[in-house]
Predict the structure.
Amino acid sequence: MSIRPAFLLRAPLLLVVALAGSSAVSQAPAGKPETPAGGFVARESITVTNLDVVVTDGKGNRVTGLKKEDFIVVEDNLEQLVTNFSPVEQGRFVLPVEETPPAPAPAPAPAPAPAREKMPRTRIIVFVDSLHLSPFNRNRVLRNVEIFVRENVKDNVEGMIVAFNRSLKIRRKFTNDGRDLSDVLRQIEDESTMGQQDLSDRRDVIKAIDDSTTADEAAGRVRSYCQSLDNDLNFTIDAMNTTINQLAGVEGRKIFIHISDGLPQSPGAELWKYISDKYPNSVGLMSTFEFDRTTKYLSVVQAANSSGVSIYAIDAAGLTVDSNISAENRATSQRIDAFLEQNNLESMLSLMAEETGGEAILNKNDVLGALKNIEKDYTSYYSIGYRSLRTGLDRPHKVEVKLKKKGLTVRARRSYLEKGVETKVREAVTSALFFPRDDNPLAVGLEVGKPAPADRENFAVPVVIRIPYSRLAMLPEGSKVRGRVVFYFVVIDSAGKQSDLTTQPQPIEYSAKEFEALARKDFVYSVKLIMIPGGQKLSIAVRDDITNQTSYLQKSVFISAFAGEEAAPRK
């Protein structure tokens, strides 16, 4: 007997997903079945939290040769026992001295000492924030970045280019071809930016304040301008979070290089001060707090620390001069507070970098030296791990890494979000749309059938998912055994429009005797995806709800606008 409940999901790209569950079985290839799991399953678990730690001396040089006993790790005010410790030097894991195996007994040919292990993988994401960049500053910095990626992106170091200008575009997916990335950055130099327009708009606002006759008149003009800046800032932060969240399922050291002319903590703060200077009895400065967006930046910090991403923020404006000196501002009635303006643009860059174990690169016209320091950060560091009890819930934790030796500086992320299983799976299945994930412990099979017209615009694509019963954990309850599988579906089209992620739980129940006969067969789940014509990429996850073992699969699907039409009869 098959039960086929219907489910419906509407997604932004006019994608409709209709799901149908089935408990049909089919013969699986012969093989020794695994014993189904049973008994009590605890939801709390002991997991290892890993931290990448950079240590420098007073001159900024990387410090090597430290042991795990030199480090103190504190989580939520409680000191933790460091259980995992792997120094990385010259881009390779190195066995600590205390873990070096003893010398072998004398022999005719001495065995080579296993001094080095495999090279860790590094991922570098260059995020060009054209919404907050002027063309001159962008191109000056990108020329330095071009040299950096050309020299450093190779072998186990991969790079990706992301551009944002009110829309988020991955200009090049991860590759270890540094020259290819350099070419993409060179192309971006010829594209428009919004930074110059913002400067022009600000000059108009300053003139409007000068021409105003009341504080309310001036405040109305500034508030309208700040709302526009705030809108752009929200889009930018959302784009940063989207990019960082996609990296959650990607392995390796992750370096996020953000390039802008600065991001305001409070959009237009210097203009409210300008009003306050002209109208001393006004409440101009109080309006600065109305637009304070520190909380939004903290969301980027949380996303980065949750995904193991270190942020390196480059202020492309470099060494700036007092804006009051410029010709267009010499005739203004008041002076823009240059210190407030600069601090407003740089403070959040510093916050995001410091909280995630990266660095803010400020007040530098030539950033090539700072970029070389980034290379040192991912080729010379310490990977530290400690075990702690996990609840399975999404909970934030503060973490601090200290050194017993004095005079050294430690950089590492200062917090992380403990992610529950559900959150991890949802992030990983979405991330797999952009970065393929090959992880299939449940031996899941995925079959995509022939599309058929569903209505005038959409097509139904039949999909069959098979899971060997021998891979599923079933818990005994009296004379029955019960299990539960959760399916996750998300689709992206060729234009980059992504559907909402939908999940469908499927309970499994048999008598113990029936289940014994299914040991060599598959649990089958049927689904129909309603898609628009064109290229689509499907990402699915299948999770055993008892053991939390999860399989991830991706499949590219092309749907012709003529799919399912019968061939016209020959005349």
